[in-house]
Structures are given as C-alpha cells and as structure tokens.
Design a protein that fits this description.
The complex is a heterodimer of chains A (295) and B (170). Chain A has 295 residues and is mostly helical. Chain A contains 15 helices and no strands. With 170 residues, chain B is of the alpha+beta class. The chains are: A mainly alpha (295), B alpha+beta (170).
Chain lengths: 295, 170
C-alpha cells in the first residue's frame, strides 16, 4: 500500500540539500516558494480556514480523493517520485564506476561522472514531459493536450514555478550551458526510439508518456519540448539567468565550487530531489483546493 | 577457558536499548488515519461516484471574466470543476462546481440553511466560503483567496454563475 498523503506531506524536509538548492533559486522567482510542509499547515495556508472541525473535514476529503485511484493523484505522485529516483539511481551507478579515479572536487565529487550531453538532453526533455503528464493527472486536462498545458504554464506559481525554475537551471543551464534548449532539440531530432528506450529516466516514467510505442512517445516528447521552448527561453532571458549567476547563488547555500560544471550537474542529479519535493507540495495544494470546494 | 566476549554482548545490548528507546515513543496516530483506513479498506466507497457528472459539463456555467478580473480554469475532474479569479496578477478567489452525488453530506448541510441566494439554499462556511446548492445536487462555491475579496464579493460573484442553466443539467 502506498503511503498516506498526510504522511508524505508531513515528512517533507525543512532542510537538507534539496531545500537549500531550491532556496538558492529564490533570486529567480523572489518570494514564490515558501517550502510549505506539514499536511495541516498546508490546509491552513492554502484555504485560509482556521476552524478545527473544518480542517478535519478538508483533510479527510483530501485523503479520500488521493486514495481513489481513478482520480490520478497517486499516478502523479508516482511520476514525480520516479523521475527523481531514476536520476538518483543513474547517479549512483555512475558514482560506482568512477570510484578511485582521483577526480577531486569537494570530496564527494570524486565519485561522480558527468552525464554525457545526450543523456542529459534526454533527461531534460523527459522531465519536462513528466511535468505535462503529471499536470494532467492532477488537474484532469486530457493527457495529450499541449495547448491547455501552455495556457496553464502561464499561471504556474509557487512550488510549480519553482519546479520549472529548477528544471531550467539544474537540468538545463548548469549541465548543458546557455544553449541547452537547442542542444536538447537537436538531440531529440537525431534520436532513435531504441536510444530513447535505453535512457534511464525514460525507463522509469515511459509507460505513462502518451504514445503507442517508443517512436510515438519520442514524437510526443519532441513536440512537447518544442511547444515549451518559447516559454523556457523567455524565462531564461526575462530572469537574466546565466550559468554563472545560478552557480553563484547555489554556492551561497550549498558547498560546491565553480569549476567542472558538468560534475556539478551530476552532483545535483543525485543529491537534489526537487521533483518529488515540490511535486508533493503541488499535489497537496491541488487536492486541498478541491477538497475544500467539495465538502 | 573462554574469556568474557564483550563484542558478543555489546551488539544485542545496544539493539535492545535501541528498541526500548524507540518503543517508548510510538508515533501518535494521525488525525486523518481513520479516513485513511476507511478509504483504503477492501470494498471502500470511492471518493468520486461512478455516475458523477463530468467536470467538463460544468464549465459553461461559470462566470465570465470581467470587471478587471481574469478567469483561469485550474481543475476539471469527474464531478468537479474549478477556476481561479485573478486581478492584477494576484489570486483573488476560487470558483467551483461539484457534484454532491459523490459526497451526499455536502448537500445535506443545506437542509439547515435559512438563507437563499438567487432562490437557492445558501450558506457561509468558515472564513472564506460562500456556497449554494442547485437542483438539490450541484454545489456552487466561491472561496476568497485574498482578504480584500469579501463576503459581499463572494455573494455577488456566486450569482454570476448560470445557476438556472446548471439546474437544468441532465
């Protein structure tokens, strides 16, 4: 049986690498992300209600909704958790290969291998599509509607916007550099379905990506990425994001150094679980918004 | 003769101390554990009834954007649809329609209601909500998300729904 939603929200950390790394992105979207944790606390904050019996009713309804599998919430949670753990497993596998080869970068980093650009490009696009699929599972817009997603992307805020900021910075800018969008698109353009099948992140979440087979899924991923590229490049230019200022801010919170940015990407990949962290927050918020309206 | 082997004793000793310590501080059951049990046991009633109306059929009854307010649809699930009202980029209120066929107690609370809005049984709930019930089945709510969006604003906006249209939904 999967964990109750209130436990998942109660167990969200208030510190640690994931939270610190996300805090370092506050300069990108100031004040948007508060790291809201705790189920009851989330109910109070989201709804503005204070009456104990009302909070109980809202929480009970949210629990019921989450546990009704036909409603898609558990699938969304699985997606958020799986894109993170696929990345982590890959990171650890890479780490195991590299042990003792003497790359010295803050102690921990000698166990890291930078991900090849191709794998990183696929990761970035698969994660973006995961967001689209999870969004539709939670909010109920049919799973292949890219247009609705784009309309909603304009309304992304709070933890959802933070997740997208982290995607752009930690999976785009840092490992791939300023031309990360073009790199990802050209990788996707040259990719064969079987190469996609071998990507660790795709292996994790592939079954929930729309498309009859790997070729169809690849097509969906390419289309989605292509539709969101305008939003991403606007985001980068309107916030004035560069590899340098993202890393500079990260250094204020996390003990990393500026050299070997590709290793920094690998480091973030295995230590920062930003999808499941902010995904749990997004899911809790949407569930609670629905619960309070339904009771 | 064998000497006293501390190592052999130490591990079980530490283990029992650990169990004692952790055993003495059991996690208090959550205030939501009853709902968790009821909703996950075999044959549990699903949260959303099979014959609930599709959320997509509610959308046309929502108030239009206007008065400087922007309307963004946020959720559309079986038995539920919700939109956000924004002004100058700020979230002001949520608008929702839900089918109480999934949650009869939500309709039942209107039996005690003494007020009406636009001829429908209505009530204020908590600090932030104004609700009414259409055709004894569809609950319409306006929920404040900003203190400047008052109870009077909610009452005005809830009447902007096409309530009569909703009452004829089959």
């Amino acid at each position: 049986m999967s964990k109750p939603i209130y436990e998942l929200v109660d167990e969200l950390p208030t510190g640690g690498l994931t939270v610190m790394a996300l805090r370092s992105l506050d300069f990108v979207i100031p004040g948007q992300w508060q790291n809201l944790v705790g189920f009851v606390n989330t109910i109070r904050t989201v709804t503005g209600e204070t009456d104990e019996s009302l909070i109980q009713q809202i929480g009970d309804r949210a629990v019921y909704l989450y546990n009704d599998k036909s409603q898609g919430y558990q699938r969304a949670m699985w997606l958020y958790q799986t894109v993170d753990s696929a990345a982590t497993a890959l990171g650890y596998a890479a780490a195991a290969n590299k042990v003792g080869e003497g790359i010295s970068f803050l102690g921990f980093l000698d166990k890291l291998t930078p991900k090849p650009e191709k794998a990183q490009s696929i990761d970035l696009s698969v994660k973006l599509v995961t967001e689209l699929v999870a969004f539709c599972q939670i909010n109920g817009i049919p799973g292949d509607s890219i247009g609705d997603f784009l309309a909603a992307l304009g309304d992304y805020s709070g933890e959802s916007l933070m997740r997208m900021a982290a995607l752009v910075c930690f999976d785009g800018l840092i490992p791939l550099g300023p031309s990360f969008i073009e790199k990802a698109l050209s990788t996707l353009g040259a990719l064969s379905p079987s190469e996609l099948e071998h990507n660790q992140t795709f292996k994790g979440v592939g079954e929930l990506i729309p498309g009859n087979d790997s070729a169809g899924k690849l097509n969906f991923i390419t289309q989605s990425f292509d539709s969101v590229k305008g939003w991403m490049s606007d985001f980068v230019s309107s916030k004035g994001l560069t590899q340098e200022n993202v890393v500079d801010n990260l250094m204020k919170f996390v003990d990393v150094s500026k050299d070997k940015l590709d290793y920094l990407g690998a480091f973030l990949d295995i230590t920062v679980k930003y999808y499941s962290h902010t995904g749990t927050q997004t899911l809790a918020r949407r569930l609670i918004e629905r619960a309070v309206a339904e009771i | 003769m064998t000497g006293f082997n501390w190592r052999r004793v130490l591990a079980p000793l530490l283990l029992s101390v650990l169990l004692l310590v952790t055993g003495c501080t059991p996690k208090a059951p959550s205030q939501f554990s009853q709902a968790q049990q009821e909703s996950t046991r075999k044959g549990a009633q699903p949260a959303v009834a099979k014959n609930a109306e599709q959320g997509s059929s509610f959308n046309k009854f929502f108030p239009k954007a206007g008065d400087g307010y922007e309307r963004v649809f946020t959720q559309e699930k079986k038995g539920f649809s919700e939109a956000k009202l924004k002004k100058d980029g700020k979230d002001m209120a949520m608008l929702s329609i839900s089918d109480t066929i999934s949650l009869p107690v939500a309709a039942k609370k209107f039996e005690n209601s003494t007020t009406k809005i636009a001829g429908y049984p209505a009530m204020e709930i908590g600090n932030t909500q104004t609700a009414l019930l259409v055709a004894n089945r569809y609950q319409v709510k306006v929920l404040s998300r900003d203190p400047s969006f008052t109870s009077a604003d909610r009452k005005a906006w809830i009447q902007k729904f096409d309530l009569n249209g909703l009452s004829r939904l089959k």
